[in-house]
Write a structure and sequence with these properties.
With 287 residues, this protein is an alpha/beta fold. It has nine helices and nine strands. The chain starts with 21 loop residues before the first helix and ends with a helix. The protein binds pyridoxal-5'-phosphate.
Length: 287
């Protein structure tokens, strides 16, 4: 996105199964005083890692660098306090932990950022600041509002207020732990417990699920049980992921355990060896 808009950027590459290396970020900020903004993901949805929000913002602030946080998959289930963590902009949307329908994105920004004269955008559609000014001045959307979606989001936010962010996070964490227990004989969590977010779980079953084709077979198998997981294998870690967000019935998790048992026990041959990719062929035939 930055490239398209002609904005210079350096990226800090780090393994996706560990939280952000603060020392690397610090070194980068020290080396390059030209850096004005630090943009990072709070919960890395690929693996479920939660990155250290407060230390990252504090580090950036010490260097006079503005912070932009992608909190898409944490907002609503992981506590974030704008009073305690002085980030500049946080972006999220209606369709993950807020449990609303897709279609509305939100941002939380400091008034200083909103009032600053610098960095006016040359995009109409992406000009959230102009939309904010319009709301403040006229109470109106700049274009036809998506009324149904907004009403459903308002309802979702009401329900979030009743449940509370902490309790929602705990509910997701108990779903995550139940999935770990249900799939334990066949799959293991990619991350160490201290890195795991409550919102999604990355699993590995490296003897059997090694390639995208293997995951396609598992996916097709789960569909037979009316269970749907994320479709893509993360190749660097050979992990696949299951979301814990939303209203998950404990019965579905028991069903997942049974479905895993059926799938993975089929992959042992008489001598107890995994035929590995053989199972893919088996399921291709079955489908
Ligand atoms: C889901 C997700 C996105 C994309 O959200 P959309 O609703 O597709 O715009 C971006 N970043 C993270 C970390 C996500 O989890």
């Amino acid at each position: 996105m930055l490239q398209i808009r002609g904005i210079n950027a350096v990226s800090i590459v780090a393994p996706s199964d560990h939280s952000f290396p603060l020392a690397k970020v610090a070194a980068c900020l020290e080396e390059d005083p030209g850096i004005t903004h630090l943009c990072f993901v709070h919960c890395e949805t690929t693996t479920g890692v939660v990155n250290p929000l407060r230390p990252m913002v504090e580090l950036a602030t010490r260097h006079g660098v503005r912070t932009i946080i992608d909190a898409m998959s944490s907002f609503g289930a992981v506590e974030i306090s704008a009073r305690e963590v002085p980030f500049d902009v946080l972006v999220t949307s209606s369709n993950k932990c807020i449990e609303g329908p897709p279609g509305v994105s939100f941002f939380v920004a400091s008034l200083q950022t909103l009032h600053s004269k610098s960095s006016e955008t040359n995009s109409f559609v992406l000009d959230v600041r102009d939309q904010w000014r319009n709301f403040e001045q006229t109470g109106e959307w700049r274009s036809t509002p998506p009324t149904h979606v907004v009403q459903a989001c308002a309802k979702a936010l009401e329900e979030l207020a009743v449940e509370g962010v902490v309790r929602r996070g705990e509910r997701y964490a108990s779903v995550r732990d139940a999935i770990i227990r249900a799939t334990a004989p066949y799959a293991s969590p990619l991350l160490e417990p201290r890195h795991r977010s409550p919102v999604c779980l990355a699993l590995t079953a490296r003897d059997v699920v090694q390639t995208q084709e293997d995951l396609d077979a598992l996916y097709a198998h789960l569909v037979e049980y009316n269970l749907y997981i994320y479709t893509k294998l993360h190749l660097p870690t050979r992990s696949f992921r299951i979301g814990c967000m939303g209203c998950i019935d404990p019965l579905w998790i028991r069903l997942l355990g049974t479905a895993f048992e059926d799938f993975f026990s089929a992959s042992f041959d008489e001598s107890g060896n995994h035929p590995g990719r053989g199972i893919t062929e088996l399921w291709k035939k079955a489908i």
